[in-house]
Specification:
It is elongated and about 85 Å long. It contains ten helices and four strands. A hairpin with a 5-residue loop joins strand 2 and strand 3. Helix 3 packs antiparallel against helix 10 and helix 6 runs antiparallel to helix 7. The two termini are 19 Å apart. It has 209 residues and is mainly α. Strands 1-4 form a two-stranded antiparallel sheet.
Length: 209
Amino acid sequence: SVTPLTFAEVADDPGISSLQRTLVNASKGFSDDLALREAAQNTARFNALYGLSGGEAGIAATKAARETATRPLLDTALANASDVGTRGVRSAAKSIGESPSFQRKAVKSAVGEAVAPFATRDAAGAKAWATKVPFDQAWGARQNIDDLLNGASNKVNEKAAQAASRQLMELRGRISTALEKASPDFRAYSRLYAKESRKVDAAGTLYDL
């Protein structure tokens, strides 16, 4: 059902809106009636937006549809991929390491967590960059960055990830480029995933409203 608008809402006139505020202050009956109408309007808006989003079940279904649509491409990308070169990721990490922001403990912690899958160890246990890493390891590193940005990682706290969000996004972009070079199918997967994610984001935005 549609809740009637107030005259001030229909007219969208500053003078009438001012008169309405005056009446609210002068008349308790008018004030109470207006409050009930606005509450009904808010309820109607909520129900409409909730219906468009599909609620929790609708969002879950949209995510499931994204998985169904994109999973075959991801499986193909994983099956046909070669090892991932780390040159671009190393270059980005070096640039970040030389920036003033890297001196912040939070940034250093989050970036270190993000690039950890690209590290190897020598016989003495010292860390060094790997020249290439298996595709699924690099893919896991990108997923790990998404977890960091979403505050879902237990290894680095949310504040650290927020502080390093720009650096993490830069690393994510370099990793994506490296993944696409190692598997042409991954580019197709990424594009389709982004397209399907817009539907998930739209449903989530409506639900949040």
